[in-house]
Design a protein that fits this description.
Length: 572
C-alpha cells in the first residue's frame, strides 16, 4: 500500500503501525522522510555528472584538431581533415559504447543505467564537438572569425566592442547577451580584441550546442531518448558562424514544453517547489530571450494555446495562476528592460533586405540554402507528388501520426502548436511583403518549422515504442505462471533480445548518424570561393592581420584590409 503527499512526486511506503512506528525519533519514520530528498540529490548529482561528461566530450575533438598539419584552403586537405575528425569521433564514441556493453556484463548489469547515461551525454557532446573541430580546421592559420569584419560578423564585433567600453551598440533591438558575452570574453582573453575573440566563441558556441540541447531534453526524456528524439533533429540547425541563434531555438522548444508540463501539474504541487520551478523557468526563458528573441515571436501563439489547454482549471486554478505569475515575474526581472525596448523600437525597425529565399515558394521550408546560396538550379527541388518530395510527405504523415498517438500528451500538442504558430506567422508576414516592401525575417521560420517537424517525426517512434513496451508488459503480466522457477532467466538478462540490446543498438546507430550529419555540417564551412557559406572562412584567410601580416594560408600570400570581396557578386 502506498500514499503520496502534495508537492512530492515520490511515492512513499506507509510505515508499519505499532508503538515503534509511532515513537518520536523513529529511525524508520525519519528514513522514510529522508528517502525522497536522497533520491532528489542522487538524480541531481547524476545529471551534473552527465553535464560534465557532455561538455568535456565536446572539447575533445576541437582540441585535437588544433594540432592538424594541413592547408585548410586545399580541398584534399579539407577531406583529410574531416576524415581525421571522423576517425577520432568514432574511436572515442565506441569507447563509451564499449563501456555500456561492459557494464551490462559485469556485476549483473548493476551499472548499466549509469554507463548508458554517460554514453548518451558523451555522444551529444562529441557530435557538436565534431562541428566545432570542423570550424577549427576551416580557420587554421588565421586569427579572424568567419567572414572577418564583413556582414553580420563585422557588425557583431563592432557592437560588442562598443558595449564593452560602456557605449550603446549600433542596434538597440539586437539581443544584448551575445554582445556582452563577446565584449567581456575579449577583455579577459584577448586584450579587448573582439574580432579575434569572436573566432573562439564561434568554435566554443558550436561545441556547446550538443550538451546544452541534450540537457534541455533531459527535462522531458530519458538519456537515450533525449539523444535520439531531441538532439539528433537539432543537428539540422547547428551553426558555427552565429551559433547562439540556432542554439536558442533548439533549447527553447524543450524548455517551453517542460514549462507546459509543469503548469499542468501545478494544481497538485506544493507551494515551495511550485514557486521555485516558476522562477527557474522565468529566469531561463529570460536568458534565452536576451540571447535571441526572434523564436519567441514565432512560438508565442502556439505556447499560449498549449498553456490554456493544460492550465489546471479543475485541480488548482490559484496555483496555476501563481506558477504563471511567478514565471512572468522572473522573466521580467531578467529581460524586462530589453522587452520594453523591443516593444518600443521593434515597431519602427523594418527589414528591407530581400534575400534568396524571399523569391521562392513560401510553403517550402524543408531546406534552407542560406542568404548566400551560390549557384542554384531549380529551387525548390522538384518533387514527385505535385511538386512535393518524399521527405515532405513523410514529415506531414508523421505530424498527423504524432498528433493521433499523442493527442493527450503536452509534449506532442505543444510542439505541434508551435509548428502551426510559426506557419501562420510566416504566411501572415509574407502575405504583406509586397504591400510593405519589408521582409521582417519571415524566412527564418524555416528553421523552427523544420525542427518541430523533425521532432514530431522522432516522437512517432518514441510513442510507438512506448505502446509496444506497454503491450509487452501487459502480455507478460497476464501470461506469467503462478510460480517461476528459480533458475529462469530475467527478461533481457542475456543481453541483446531485451532492453540492453535495444540501448546498445540504438547508441551504435546514433553514433554513425551523428558522425555523418556532423561531417556534412562541418563540410559546408570548409573555405571555398563558391558563393555559399564556404566563402565565410575563405574571406577570413584573405584579411590582413592587425600586425600587418597576411594569414598563414592566404592565397598566393596576398591579403587586404577587407579581404576577398568576390562574394558580393553572388548576392546582386
Amino acid at each position: 500500500m502506498t500514499v503520496s503527499t502534495e508537492g512530492s512526486a515520490a511515492v512513499r511506503p506507509v510505515p508499519p503501525s505499532g508503538p515503534a512506528a509511532n515513537a518520536p525519533g523513529s529511525s524508520k519514520s525519519s528514513d522514510a522522510d529522508r528517502a525522497p530528498r536522497r533520491a532528489l540529490r542522487s538524480r541531481g548529482g547524476l545529471l551534473l555528472l552527465e553535464a560534465a561528461v557532455a561538455f568535456a566530450a565536446a572539447l575533445v575533438l576541437p582540441l585535437l584538431a588544433r594540432g592538424f598539419k594541413l592547408n585548410p584552403l586545399n580541398r584534399i586537405a579539407q577531406v583529410s581533415g574531416l576524415a581525421a575528425i571522423q576517425l577520432r569521433f568514432a574511436l572515442v564514441g565506441l569507447l563509451f559504447i564499449a563501456a555500456v556493453v561492459l557494464a551490462m556484463r559485469l556485476r549483473g548489469g548493476r551499472h548499466f543505467d549509469l554507463a548508458t547515461r554517460l554514453a548518451a551525454a558523451a555522444l551529444a557532446g562529441l557530435a557538436s564537438g565534431f562541428v566545432a573541430a570542423g570550424a577549427v580546421v576551416a580557420l587554421l592559420g588565421t586569427p579572424w572569425p568567419m567572414f572577418g569584419l564583413n556582414g553580420d560578423s563585422g557588425r557583431i564585433v563592432e557592437w560588442a566592442h562598443a558595449v564593452a567600453n560602456g557605449q550603446p551598440s549600433g542596434s538597440p533591438v539586437y539581443p544584448p547577451m551575445p554582445l556582452y558575452t563577446l565584449g567581456y570574453y575579449a577583455e579577459w582573453f584577448h586584450g579587448g580584441n573582439t574580432a579575434y575573440a569572436f573566432k573562439d566563441l564561434q568554435i566554443l558556441g558550436a561545441a556547446a550546442f550538443g550538451p546544452l540541447v541534450y540537457l534541455a531534453w533531459r527535462m522531458l526524456l530519458s538519456p537515450v531518448r533525449a539523444l535520439a528524439f531531441g538532439v539528433v533533429p537539432a543537428f539540422a540547425l547547428i551553426d558555427s558562424y552565429k551559433p547562439y541563434s540556432q542554439t536558442v531555438l533548439a533549447l527553447l522548444i524543450p524548455v517551453l514544453v517542460a514549462m507546459v508540463v509543469a503548469l499542468r501539474r501545478s494544481g497538485t504541487e506544493g507551494w515551495r517547489p511550485l514557486l521555485l520551478k516558476a522562477a527557474g523557468f522565468g529566469v531561463l526563458l529570460g536568458v534565452l530571450f536576451l540571447t535571441y528573441s526572434g523564436w519567441f515571436l514565432w512560438s508565442a501563439a502556439g505556447v499560449l494555446f498549449a498553456a490554456l489547454l493544460y492550465f489546471p482549471w479543475k485541480t488548482g486554478r490559484l496555483k496555476g495562476a501563481a506558477f504563471m505569475g511567478g514565471a512572468l515575474a522572473a522573466f521580467l526581472v531578467v529581460a524586462g528592460r530589453y522587452l520594453m525596448v523591443m516593444l518600443k523600437e521593434g515597431q519602427t525597425t523594418k527589414d528591407y533586405n530581400f534575400r534568396f529565399d524571399n523569391f521562392t515558394d513560401p510553403a517550402y521550408y524543408l531546406m534552407w540554402r542560406t542568404d548566400m546560396p551560390g549557384k542554384v538550379g531549380d529551387w525548390p527541388p522538384p518533387g514527385e507528388f505535385g511538386g512535393v518530395g518524399l521527405f515532405a510527405l513523410v514529415t506531414f504523415v508523421c505530424l498527423g501520426a504524432a498528433i493521433w498517438l499523442g493527442l493527450r500528451k503536452p509534449l506532442v500538442v505543444t510542439i505541434a502548436a508551435m509548428f502551426i504558430s510559426a506557419w501562420v506567422m510566416r504566411m501572415y508576414i509574407a502575405s504583406h511583403m509586397y504591400e510593405t516592401q519589408t521582409v521582417q525575417l519571415y524566412t527564418r521560420t524555416n528553421n523552427q518549422l523544420l525542427y518541430c517537424g523533425l521532432i514530431l517525426c522522432a516522437l512517432v517512434a518514441h510513442l510507438v515504442s512506448l505502446k509496444l513496451a506497454e503491450r509487452r508488459t501487459a502480455s507478460q503480466t497476464s501470461e506469467a505462471p503462478a510460480t517461476v522457477p528459480a533458475t529462469a532467466p530475467a527478461v533481457g538478462s542475456t543481453g541483446f533480445p531485451g532492453r540492453e540490446g535495444a540501448v546498445i543498438g540504438t547508441l551504435c546507430a546514433l553514433l554513425l548518424l551523428l558522425g555523418t550529419v556532423s561531417s556534412s555540417m562541418s563540410d559546408r564551412y570548409m573555405p571555398a570561393q563558391d558563393g555559399t557559406y564556404r566563402i565565410l572562412p575563405w574571406v577570413s584567410h584573405t584579411i590582413r592581420q592587425q600586425d600587418g601580416k597576411c594569414p598563414k594560408f592566404a592565397p598566393k600570400g596576398e591579403c587586404s584590409k577587407d579581404g576577398d570581396q568576390s562574394w558580393l557578386s553572388y548576392i546582386r
